[in-house]
Amino acid sequence: MTGHSLTHLDASGHARMVDVSDKNETFRKAIAAAEVHMHPRTLALIMSGSMPKGDVLATARIAGIMAAKKTADIIPLCHPLRLTSVSVELVPVDDKIEITATVTTKDATGVEMEALTAVSVAALTLYDMCKAVDRGMRIDKTRLQHKSGGRSGDYNAD
User: Fold this and answer.
1) Residue 47 falls inside a structural domain
2) 78 among the known binding-site residues?
3) What pTM did the predictor assign?
4) In this structure, what DSSP letter does residue 78 have?
5) 54 CB-near residues (< 8 Å, 6+ apart)
6) Is 73 helix (H, G, I), strand (E, B) or coil?
């Protein structure tokens, strides 16, 4: 199966990478989000720069960007893409840090997985750097917020 048959299964029902060779390269964008809930004391340590492992937000931001660039290496059957931009924002709100990743490309397939991977790895990095202080942190609400470009059209979460 090739061309317009966008499935991860071949004619025998075995997993394979989707053939996107017939798809046009267009501008594509995805935005994903996640939250890391924590004790207010933990958030205060992060914001004051007093966490024992260093600058948690800067490290999580870089980890998210690097993860987006390596998505095809860690998600089976995901296409390697030429990313044109990746941004990861981490914003403290009440007892949590809200993470948002925006990923763009001009390619034949979308960047939803790259955006979701970026927020997931940024959240895991936050957890890793703070777990000695707060093992009760919770990663929550990982989701795709927006997708544009490509044959399937735009998506905006409710």
Assistant:
1) yes
2) yes
3) 0.89
4) P
5) 129
6) helix
The answer for residues whose C-beta is within 8 angstroms of residue 117's C-beta and 6 or more apart is: 67, 68, 70, 71, 74, 75
Q: Say whether 79 counts as a known binding-site residue.
A: yes
pLDDT tens-place values along the chain, 158 residues long: 334 455 666 677 777 767 676 777 889 999 999 999 999 999 999 999 999 899 999 999 999 999 999 999 999 888 899 999 999 999 999 999 999 999 999 988 889 999 999 999 999 999 999 999 999 999 999 999 999 998 888 999 98
Name all contacts of 61-67 with Cβ < 8 Å and 24+ positions apart.
Answer: 61/88, 61/89, 61/90, 61/122, 63/121, 63/122, 63/124, 63/125, 64/88, 64/99, 64/101, 64/118, 64/119, 64/121, 64/122, 64/125, 65/118, 66/121, 67/117, 67/118, 67/120, 67/121, 67/122
Residue 117 CA to residue 81 CA, distance in Å, equals: 14
Which residues form the catalytic set?
A: 128
CATH number where 41 lies:
3.30.70.640
78 is in which domain, residue-wise? 26-156
